[in-house]
Design brief:
Blueprint: H1 2-79, H2 82-107, H3 113-137
Region (Disordered): 73-92
Protein name: Lipoprotein
């Protein structure tokens, strides 16, 4: 009986001594989980910042082209002849297409960004080509008098 009490007493002491280690271990695990959570939030924030930077850059490129179109359209309105009106219509169509692409870029989610970015790049390249063609085709309208 004494031996049994002795063994139970030793087991109780061992359990008491291991409890603080378990608590410390639990605290350590909790701290590690919190740190991992913070790192995950940071990574998500960085990815979000990168996405927003890419969106802003794409929108700036398209807005720059729209500004050129607006300036050219204003010059054409001053002339008022048939060829100027035709050129203005073509520019307005291009501008509407670019504005639509800007709206799509603004609304793009992270998982659809790659396809949206490709589409925006295609529109930007197409607009550059069309702009160059337009300037070539209607160069006589933009000569300084």
């Amino acid at each position: 009986m004494k031996n049994l009490i002795f063994v139970l007493g030793m087991a109780a002491m061992a359990a008491c001594q291991s409890a603080p280690e378990t608590k410390n271990s639990g605290d350590s695990i909790k701290a590690n989980l919190q740190e991992a959570g913070q790192q995950l939030k940071s990574a998500a924030s960085n990815a979000g910042d990168y996405l927003q930077q890419q969106k802003d850059q794409t929108i700036d490129t398209l807005n720059s082209r729209i500004a050129q179109i607006n300036k050219a359209t204003e010059e054409l309105k001053k002339k008022g002849d048939k060829k100027s009106k035709e050129a203005s219509r073509k520019l307005e169509d291009l501008k509407l297409q670019m504005q639509k692409e800007i709206d799509e870029v603004k609304a793009a989610s992270a998982d659809k960004w790659d396809s949206t970015k490709k589409a925006a790049d295609v529109v930007a390249k197409k607009s550059e080509r069309l702009w160059d063609d337009f300037k070539r085709d209607f160069k006589d309208l933009f000569k300084k008098d």
